[in-house]
Amino acid sequence: MNLAPIILFVYNRPDETYKTIKLLEKNVLADQSHLFVFSDGPKTEGQITKVSKVREIIANIEGFKQVTVINSDSNKGLATSVITGVTSVIERYGKVIVLEDDLETSIYFLKFMNQALDYFQHHQDIWSISGYTPNIELPKDYYSNIYSIPRACSWGWGTWKDRWDKNDWELENYEQLLNNKDKRKQFNKPGNDMSYMLIDQKKKLIDSWAIRWCYSQFINNAYTIYPKYSFIKNTGFSGESTHGSLSKKYDVQICQTYSIEFDKVIPQDKVIMKFAEFYNMTIINYIGRILKTLGLYKKVKVIIKKVRK
User: 114, 79, 108: which is closest to 94 by C-alpha?
Assistant: First the structure.
């Protein structure tokens, strides 16, 4: 098997970074894989110490065939870091597996990702592979170990160069989607939060590479492959998380067994409907969006954290 290189994006969370790396080291195929670590620079003087601690950790990584560390002098932010970092590696290797510093992996994460990338490489309707899957109840008559959704995931994922090259990072024609009722409805099929995130991205209320990735997937009429049981757990819902959340609904049990059999997956509306139910916006999400529009979201978030303590 021609293994995909692994890309890990880190910033200012030494404890999370250390745990992510240690679990990744235990993965089947880790010792045969090339790991690239992109470390973003401090945004403020107050972040220098934590960034330095992270860089001490990534300077001493073991357990991989090869480790390449790229330290940024400036703060690029997660979106720019991911776009530029993935582009630089995928140009050379043709495919990638991507992680951030708040993701715990099953020992079979790399095995699943590499096998899926190999199997679906020439299936042009498959946009990416996700190692994470949310807690959704699949139909009782659904027996496959994988399923396909017209929405990508940014928590432990992989893709190929020819798909990555199709991205419209500037969202040049996004109005055509949002102003067309039928297209907007179709875009929101895997979750009605999609169009709102796209609007917020265009208005620069958020800085997300992931919603732009999902948008490009949609206009290319493609799907993401998800495992029935998750090989990824996100632990970044507190502390210094860039995308922190007060919700624990994304918590999952990591799958520590492996019995995946890959085959061509036909998208099923009843599966997509269950997936959408998980991601559809709640009243709290709508309130959060209003606060972002008013420029109050971060302030309210800080207050809530203090109250919860």
Answer: 114
pLDDT digits (tens, 9 = 90+) for 45-89: 999 999 999 999 999 999 999 999 999 999 999 999 999 999 999
The enclosing domain of 175 has a CATH number of 3.90.550.10
Would you say 190 and 60 are in contact if contact means Cβ atoms under 8 Å apart? Answer: no
Q: Tokens 């997660």 belong to which residue?
A: 78
Give domain status of residue 309, yes or no: no
Is position 115 within any domain? yes
Helix (H) or strand (E) holding 20: helix 14-25
Question: Residue 16 is part of which domain span?
Answer: 6-282
Going by C-beta distance under 8 Å and a sequence separation of 6 or more, which residues neighbour residue 78? 9, 11, 40, 100, 207, 209, 242
Quick one: which of 203, 211, 209 has its CA closest to 289?
203
SS3 state of residue 252? coil
Contact 271, 147 (CB under 8 A): yes
Element (H, E) at 103: strand 103-105
**Measured between alpha carbons, how far is 116 from 261 in angstroms, rounded to an integer?**
10
Please say whether the beta carbons of 37 and 61 come within 8 A.
Answer: yes
Flag whether 160 is in a domain: yes
What pTM was computed for the model?
0.91
Burial 149-170 (b: 16+ CB within 10 A, else e): bbbbbbbbbbbbbebbeebeee
| Residue 110 counted as domain residue | yes
CA angle 192, 197, 202 (to 5 degrees): 140
